[in-house]
Amino acid sequence: MAKGMKCALIGQAFMGKAHSNAYRQVSRFFDLPLQPEMHKIAARDGAALEPFAKAQGWAGWTTDWRSLADDPEVGMVDVSTPNHLHREMSLAMLKAGKHVACEKPLASTLEEAREMRDAARKAKASKTFVWFNYRRAPAIALAWQMLRKKRLGQIYHVRASYLQSWGMASTPMGWRFKKKHAGSGAHGDLNAHIVDLARFLLQEEIVEVHGAVARTFVKQRTWAETGKQARCDVDDAVLFLGSFAGGATASFEATRLAPGHLNDNTIEINGELGSLRWNLENLNELWLHEESERPGESGWRRISATDGANHPYADAWWPGGHIIGYEHTFTNQLADMMRVLARKKPIMPVADFADAYETQRVLEAALVSARERCAVPLSEIR
Amino acid sequence: MAKGMKCALIGQAFMGKAHSNAYRQVSRFFDLPLQPEMHKIAARDGAALEPFAKAQGWAGWTTDWRSLADDPEVGMVDVSTPNHLHREMSLAMLKAGKHVACEKPLASTLEEAREMRDAARKAKASKTFVWFNYRRAPAIALAWQMLRKKRLGQIYHVRASYLQSWGMASTPMGWRFKKKHAGSGAHGDLNAHIVDLARFLLQEEIVEVHGAVARTFVKQRTWAETGKQARCDVDDAVLFLGSFAGGATASFEATRLAPGHLNDNTIEINGELGSLRWNLENLNELWLHEESERPGESGWRRISATDGANHPYADAWWPGGHIIGYEHTFTNQLADMMRVLARKKPIMPVADFADAYETQRVLEAALVSARERCAVPLSEIR
Amino acid sequence: MAKGMKCALIGQAFMGKAHSNAYRQVSRFFDLPLQPEMHKIAARDGAALEPFAKAQGWAGWTTDWRSLADDPEVGMVDVSTPNHLHREMSLAMLKAGKHVACEKPLASTLEEAREMRDAARKAKASKTFVWFNYRRAPAIALAWQMLRKKRLGQIYHVRASYLQSWGMASTPMGWRFKKKHAGSGAHGDLNAHIVDLARFLLQEEIVEVHGAVARTFVKQRTWAETGKQARCDVDDAVLFLGSFAGGATASFEATRLAPGHLNDNTIEINGELGSLRWNLENLNELWLHEESERPGESGWRRISATDGANHPYADAWWPGGHIIGYEHTFTNQLADMMRVLARKKPIMPVADFADAYETQRVLEAALVSARERCAVPLSEIR
Amino acid sequence: MAKGMKCALIGQAFMGKAHSNAYRQVSRFFDLPLQPEMHKIAARDGAALEPFAKAQGWAGWTTDWRSLADDPEVGMVDVSTPNHLHREMSLAMLKAGKHVACEKPLASTLEEAREMRDAARKAKASKTFVWFNYRRAPAIALAWQMLRKKRLGQIYHVRASYLQSWGMASTPMGWRFKKKHAGSGAHGDLNAHIVDLARFLLQEEIVEVHGAVARTFVKQRTWAETGKQARCDVDDAVLFLGSFAGGATASFEATRLAPGHLNDNTIEINGELGSLRWNLENLNELWLHEESERPGESGWRRISATDGANHPYADAWWPGGHIIGYEHTFTNQLADMMRVLARKKPIMPVADFADAYETQRVLEAALVSARERCAVPLSEIR
After folding, report:
1. Is A298 within 8 Å of C303 when comparing Cβ atoms?
2. How many CB pairs under 8 A join C and D?
3. What is the total count of domains within chain B?
4. What pLDDT score was predicted for residue C358?
5. What percentage of chain B exceeds 70 in pLDDT?
6. Which end of chain C is more exposed for a tag (fewer CB within 10 A), N or C?
7. Is C380 inside a domain boundary?
8. In chain A, which residues have their Cβ closer than 8 Å to the Cβ of D306?
């Protein structure tokens, strides 16, 4: 029987629920060389913690996250807290010799991210992971395999956007709108995902940012509890343009104010031999266009990436045509993390702190561009 | 019976055919206060000209376009030649007191465009028009009406791209790849359309460009006739970011190397109260999302803009659900031009030289941004 | 220069306009061995006729359709009148030695259709045609070519429906709701189209009808002019099941009461090697699925049938990605009719009276099944 | 804390895995008045059983399903075996006073189904359930709510098809192709689902079947293990037409030979005030068309039924825009079953044996129609 590794989770909100599910489910569906055990959960809200821990299947719970560092049984700590806490918690756990799985974005600032990368480098016995879970939608993993085989030839364009609409003016104030807690707005939350996806799929780095614009459309929001107004100091939307090392252009757009888009993470790649397209709201589908079809017969093709015989991760789940949901991407990632910890090859590469730091550099370059480089006012063009 | 105006066309290629069709068809479908008469066509290739003229229904033909200026019967001259000829021809015709309808983009350079705008200003008796024909897809005109009524509230985002795929490496050399004739590549050809569409729909101006990137992926192409290689000196793709006066962000992308997209001019607008989306390959459809639906029932809605009782231009054509094609947008525009010439109100505003000059300024700002403003190399971000 | 044939049209309503357009446009776009000349139009409403004739480009007009038979110049007569007039007019014109192009359905009743077929057989010098125009959407013609080459292997299923929504209860009374004039309702109007399409594409005959249901949901309608109520005595919807000679099942549904469907003629074919799907509201697109793709990569593929180098009829129109509209299917058909009359091969086979009679037999079998064969009441099943 | 009920499952194949997941997950996501406990699983294949039971979280296991009847701790038995075993197992468990949840279709034959209904009637202390799990996709439940409120007015048409493609000629022989084990082919497997969905959504009964056709296209298949050929004696496809009590027409089609359709359960309903459409491959989406939109603005609207505040079941899962997968429909159903057992109101009505018997009667009527009622051969129509 497979060995186990005791895992601890910090955080009990939305991500806490999604991660808990992954720990609970992963061994039911994957045949793993190392099985995660739901050892302990840590969170601040003591009243809510016990029922949450029980409902989600955690054996223990604590309001003192630091105590996890001292628990010799804990093999891996999963940091699923707001962004401003990632650095401190990850560093403490690395110092204590734990493996660390951190939610994205890696950190609130590039400086923090750099510290985390450096700490990970030093902690040679520890593995680090970052929860860029969308890499592990089977359709994305299939696209990665195709791109690995150079199926699209030279890449010309990457077009990525992550459009949501929960940030309309009517939405009350919350931690995600405060720089102190969130670091940034849509940029860190959403652009982090699509920059990672683009880097992951192209398997090369972004080398230049050509321009960026950041906007906070809704300047004030009301705290639901107190009725008080407060200033939003993070972006609602950030757009930027970049170039990949191989010459491909890339455009990125993240926004929380795009009505009609609930969770629309879309990426398209155009190359010399064809194109690929995916979006999160139909995450089981990969669209492929190949120039090599019979003359007059090429066209975008909808592949349902649900076939266990042919699609990564799909054999763990259901027969072809039976779709999986959002949370399965976390379960798939946990399976790969367990394989890495057992020194086996993961189905898809998992981002570690060094990898996530590269994404953070791209996000930072966009901020620098938005802030420091001069735009061209139309008044100059006569 | 409606009066007529004798019209002349310069050009016999693709655009010559599309424009000829509009002149021939417009009075069959629209009840116009002034009817265009197909008086004369001018083009260089004398051998091809006569059969083309006859097939398309032109009463006369000439290889000397300048002679049109001296023909007192000609009321309007339609300049449908490659971009580098627009200025000279338009100026000559304005000088001769003709009304001028020019293909887009207005000119190869901003300087030429400015000259044309100034000439149009001076020629007080002449009307000028630019063939931004997509304004007149009924679905776009419907979107314009909705935006006119502020149906989307404050606008947050405009997302426009014009993706084609005929410029792959296998495509032979041609005038569209030479700066001398085309002025620019995808930028003038495709971004011109989507910048015009965005300005037209938002009914306000772009005030700033935040960054741009231009690429020529295919550096050399072969002349089909001679087998000789030649250098491509126009862009294959240009992307840029901008801001509208009201604060909306805008992204534009034009490319000829996006496999799977033949003629994919797509625009989406997100605002406080909803969103609109359109693409040229399904030009009869307008997608609308409204936040105001019953709770839990909002969603993107596909409107078939084919209903004569409710959709602009549609009553000229077929019953609801019977789609129109690409060339109908020219016919619709010609109908509006004739109304303007008869001092009637067009169904939708028609771009004149001054209006098209504003689009040209935006294109120029993007080029300046791509050329002169420093990008942020990732090597700076450590 | 190509020879001409003087053509006459009977009818000035919706179909009169669509047919007139085809006569006016066909020689502008197709290089034909025989060119139709717009000689004369006949219609009952004399007041409307002259302006209609002039606007549409007919050289002459008459309120006496019979006079066309005596006009020695007339080569072909186009019968575009309500269904109950098809027989009388076609027979008169065949007797006078004219070629006859008749709107679909061939006739109001099977008896009339049989008479027409027999008359066509006898009139050896005359060609007959029926306006099943959707055969000539380039996407359908492409599907026909694929099926001709057995690209789908053995055919298992044909699924055809023609859904409209203009027949809701609020729609006033009109000739299309009266059996005397229309013969039938959705059945003759819409099922005629999809039965023809299915037979055309499969290139084999329907041999059996397995059940049918006809419904008149809206029993009474109001005449807009008089405000008087009248009984609707045609069907609003007819569904039936059949089998093709080769064993494929076929389902057909026609209705005028399907909200959300304006003109939704959809056909899908499933075979041993793949599937094809088309719908009229996006008539430029053909969807193809092939089982033979690489494992894990098959999927529905959207082909834009707009490429002149590869798609039937498309070279007459615009470059790839520039869509054509509804009326082009008539123009394409007229081009083929002219080729047949010049003893050249049409791009796609044109239905003649004998062919259309086969479609009428299938419609009749469905009516017999709906009327005479016993349904199974659930009360019998205990 | 909520009380528990010990549950037992019979079956360890695909359905065994999907049901096990529901038992394991339901209390993690739903706040239930009664919690299912994973007491024991029974299956024939003893070697596979223990690892399956452990992996899936069952506390005990047995190869003797009958022993469950004698286990006083067992409150509910879930029958997830091939169809021919449903009757015997359900009857035994009802006799032992257990609640019974049975997979669909209820039974292999109408006679068996009747026996089961009658046994359920007699077993007054037992509740029965049938796993028509698609009722519980949030998008379907939302449609049910709309139809409950008569949002579509009078219903005209129901159009349901369940198209799969795993039954191509290359597929080896298996129990699903043998009448002895499966009872029927696509009819019981797939038509059972869509007849239930149609009855569930319309909330009225089918009163008549108007015609049907059944086909076995692939007559022989090869056993993978032995290489021997065997005869397929179930249908590959069954189509039939019916009428609902309120007059709506209904068409049903089930097939395993529709390439391009993996698991395409699609239903559309057209009524006086609008239409609804859903398909299983995008099970989170409901398409709605309403006639009541502003003139010229109606159209099909895509609702993402993922919003906990507004969509049934969705609050148990993830924030809006985060999709759920196939297996969640079972979990949702189990939640409702537990509510029923705790004498609380389920979110959506759960089918019991009496309800499933009505679906079985419709399937039987289709078979009678296919078998006994005369089709109309085209040879009769001259």
Report:
1. yes
2. 207
3. 2
4. 98
5. 100
6. N
7. no
8. 262
CATH number reported for the structural domain that contains residue D160 in this entry: 3.30.360.10
| Option in D20, D57, D304 nearest A262 (CB) | D304
Which of B24, B28, B166, B300 has the most C C-beta neighbours within 10 Å, making it the best mutation to test the interface with C?
B28
Whether the model clears a pTM of 0.95, i.e. scores above it, the answer is yes
Distance separating alpha carbons of residues A307 and A318, to the nearest angstrom: 8
- Nearest-neighbour CA in chain C from B370: distance (Å): 29
The answer to whether the CB of B331 falls within 8 A of the CB of B21 is: yes
Residues B212 and B155 in one domain: yes
- A304–C302: do the CB atoms touch at under 8 Å? no
Least confident of A173-182, A228-237, C146-155, D267-276: A173-182
Interface probe, candidates A149, A284, A291, A301, chain C, greatest C C-beta count within 10 A:
A301
Q: Does residue B180 share a domain with residue B74? A: no
Question: Which residues form the domain of A48?
Answer: 3-133
Interchain CB distance below 8 Å, A28 and D304: no
Within a domain: A333: no
Strands (E), chain D: 3-10, 34-42, 60-62, 76-79, 99-102, 128-130, 155-163, 206-215, 220-222, 229-231, 237-244, 249-255, 264-271, 274-279, 285-290, 300-304, 376-377
CB-nearest to C301 from A299, A309, A311 is A299
**Which residue in B151, B376, B382 has the most chain A C-beta atoms within 10 A of its own C-beta, making it the best mutation to test that interface?**
B376
Whether residues D299 and B298 touch (CB distance < 8 A) is answered with no
When computed from its CA atoms, the radius of gyration of chain C, rounded to whole angstroms, is 21
Statement to judge: residues D158 and D23 lie in one domain? no
What pLDDT is attached to residue B1? Answer: 57
**Averaged pLDDT, D22-47:** 96
Asked if D304's CB is within 8 angstroms of B296's CB, the reply is no
pLDDT digits (tens, 9 = 90+) for D132-191: 999 999 999 999 999 999 999 999 999 999 999 999 999 999 988 999 988 889 999 999
Q: For residues D159 and D133, what is the distance between their CA atoms, to the nearest angstrom?
A: 19
Cβ distance D281 to D262 under 8 Å? yes
Give the orientation angle of helix D192-202 with respect to helix D353-372, to 10 degrees: 120
Residue written as token pair 């959403």 = A190
Residue A143: closest C-alpha in chain C: C297
Assess whether D290 and D310 both reside in one domain: yes
Alpha-carbon distance D152 to nearest alpha carbon in chain B (angstroms): 14
Cβ contact C283:B323 at 8 Å? yes
| D193 and D128 housed in the same domain | no
* Same domain assignment for residues D126 and D160: no
Residues in chain C: 382
**Which chains lie within 8 Å of chain C at 3 or more CB pairs, if any?**
A, B, D
Domain boundary residue among D133, D157, D174? D133
CATH code: domain of residue A69: 3.40.50.720
Chain A residues inside the 8 Å CB shell of D329: none
CA distance B201 to B203: 5
Mark which of C133, C152, C174 sits at the end of a domain: C133
Q: In chain D, whose CA is at the least distance from the CA of C367?
A: D376
Beta-sheet pairing, A249-255 with A264-271: unpaired
Q: Which stretches in chain B have pLDDT values below 70? A: 1
* Residues D60 and D112 placed together within one structural domain of the fold: yes
Q: How far apart are CA D102 and CA C282, in angstroms?
A: 44
pLDDT digits (tens, 9 = 90+) for C157-193: 999 999 999 999 999 999 889 999 888 899 999 999 9
Average pLDDT for chain D = 96
Please state the separation of Cα D63 from the chain's center in Å. 26
Predicted local distance difference test score (pLDDT) of residue D266: 98
> Do D276 and D287 touch, CB atoms closer than 8 A?
yes
Task: Say if residue C193 is in the same domain as residue C293.
Answer: yes
- Is B381 domain-assigned? no
Interface residues of C toward B, Cβ cutoff 8 Å, are 14, 18, 20-21, 24-25, 27-28, 55-57, 164, 166, 261-264, 280-284, 304, 306, 317-328
ipTM of the complex: 0.95
